[in-house]
Automatic annotation (TrEMBL):
One of its GO terms (molecular function) is O-acetyltransferase activity. The keyword Transmembrane helix applies. Residues 120-386 form the Trichome birefringence-like C-terminal domain. Pfam families: PC-Esterase, PMR5N. It is found in: Membrane. The lineage of its organism: Eukaryota, Viridiplantae, Streptophyta, Embryophyta, Tracheophyta. This is Trichome birefringence-like N-terminal domain-containing protein. The chain crosses the membrane at residues 12-32. It comes from the Eukaryota. Keywords: Membrane, Signal-anchor, Transmembrane, Transmembrane helix. One of its GO terms (cellular component) is membrane. Residues 67-119 form the Trichome birefringence-like N-terminal domain. Its main location: membrane. Belongs to the PC-esterase family. TBL subfamily.
Length: 389
């Protein structure tokens, strides 16, 4: 018993410790991924600047049509002033790292995502709670899943004032149970989706062909996965010592190749292990960090600290990052394409260079990877909601 509690505590401490390195290694990671993405995405460089479009209530009522791509559009000032969708101080789930209450500029809270061909439905938390009564929704991935998860919890929480909830912890997950509706919302920590296991006399092994946690995941009714940030991290902070690739143990390998292998293993797992009549599967697209002004057409700018406005228009000058290109390619090759829905939030998140905590969350260092809550992840969840029903 004492041992169990102890290891839970150690695990949580470990998770927090790893999270803190997100900031430190962000810069390294970006340089690395830029190197690759620049080579591939050179052709995609266009700059389009539009002035902020103000949209009317009538437009708000436009109905979603089935051929509308919700992920293509631009950020506009919300003249109905329903953004932010909740006040940060009223949501008990937001961790300090995402809390931008002390940010002096407030403009970043006033934008809404406007798809080009239709409107995004409002997030209806009660609707989610009713339809998922007795069910479980699970977010699986790294700290960007945590970012998304906490936004989702807040959106549900504010939809029913005074709603009861309790929290359940295991060594790998946290679950919030909204008791009145018997809805379980879980975050399952998994940096790579594939396994990292400690092998006696070897060490920590990243196993590109193995997903043991899948047995737990597939019991849920909705799964939302994400992975990328940790694939390119090097020593001393990489959370593994060896990689197992097709039965062979190697000290290291091309990380992009490793990412592709891991992703393919995950796709195969979904195709063969998940019951599509019970469980819906989503992939949360790469969100994108902002470290180099030349990515958004302002060469010389370093980091996101001074950014208070999104990139206007619907095209991100830096193009689609490598990780997102790989995800799209892998998903396109699937045998059963309908079994995974891509929440294609990459470009819309890249446009929000103003959405990060930067140095406003009370932590040392500058976070240009995660997003403030309330903020951009609330839009991810509006899109998730629209895609779920
Ligand atoms: C959130 O609520 C607090 C306390 O009521 C208030 O001071 C703050 O201005 C609110 N923030 C926003 C963005 O409305
Ligand atoms: C977490 O707990 C499960 C079952 O309780 C156990 O099988 C697993 O090894 C534990 N994982 C870690 C990382 O401690
Ligand atoms: C932000 O702006 C201030 C004042 O103009 C400037 O001193 C600082 O270097 C800028 N910071 C970054 C990261 O560009």
């Amino acid at each position: 018993m004492a041992k169990g509690v102890n290891s839970t505590f150690v695990y949580i401490l470990g998770a927090m410790f790893m999270l803190s390195f997100v900031f430190v290694f962000e810069a390294m990671l970006t340089v690395f991924s830029r190197f690759y993405s620049d080579a591939i995405a050179k052709k995609l460089v266009h700059i389009e600047r539009k002035t902020t479009r103000i949209i009317s209530k009538q437009q708000e009522e436009k109905i979603i049509t089935s051929n509308c791509n919700l992920f293509e559009g631009s950020w506009v000032i919300d003249d109905d002033a329903i953004h932010p969708l909740y006040n940060t101080t009223t949501c008990p789930f937001i961790r300090n790292i995402f809390d931008c209450t002390n940010r002096p500029d407030r403009q970043y809270l006033k934008y809404k995502w406007q798809p080009s061909a239709c409107n995004l439905p409002r997030f209806d938390g009660r609707d989610v709670l009713r339809k998922y009564k007795g069910k479980q929704i699970m977010f699986i991935g790294d700290s960007l899943s945590l970012n998304n998860y906490e936004s989702f919890l807040c959106l549900l929480y504010v939809s029913v004032p005074g709603m009861n909830y309790k929290t359940k912890l295991t060594n790998q997950s946290v679950t919030v149970i909204f008791e009145d509706y018997e809805v379980l919302v879980t975050l399952f920590n998994s940096l790579f989706l594939v396994d990292v296991e400690v092998e006696p006399n070897i060490g920590r092994v990243l196993k590109l062909n193995s997903i043991k946690n899948g047995e737990i995941w597939k019991q849920a009714d909705v799964l939302i996965f994400n992975t990328w940030l940790w694939w390119t991290r090097g020593k001393p902070k990489q959370p593994w010592d060896y990689i197992e690739d097709g039965g062979k143990l190697v000290k290291d390998m091309n990380r992009i190749t490793a990412f592709k292998r891991g992703l393919n293993t995950w796709v195969k797992w979904v195709e063969t292990q998940v019951d599509p009549t019970k469980t819906k599967v989503f992939y949360q697209g790469e969100a994108g960090s902002h470290h180099h002004g030349e990515d958004w057409g302002e060469p010389g700018v370093k980091g996101c600290s001074n950014e208070t406005r999104p990139v206007m228009g619907s095209i991100y000058p830096g193009g689609l990052p490598l990780a997102a290109q790989i995800v799209k390619k892998v998903l396109k090759k699937m045998r059963k394409k309908e079994s995974i829905f891509l929440l294609d939030i990459t470009i819309l998140s890249h446009l929000r260079k103003d959405g990060h905590p930067a140095n406003h969350n009370g932590y040392k260092g500058i976070d240009c990877t995660h997003f403030c809550l309330s903020g951009v992840p609330d839009t991810w969840n509006q899109l998730f909601y629209a895609s779920l029903f």
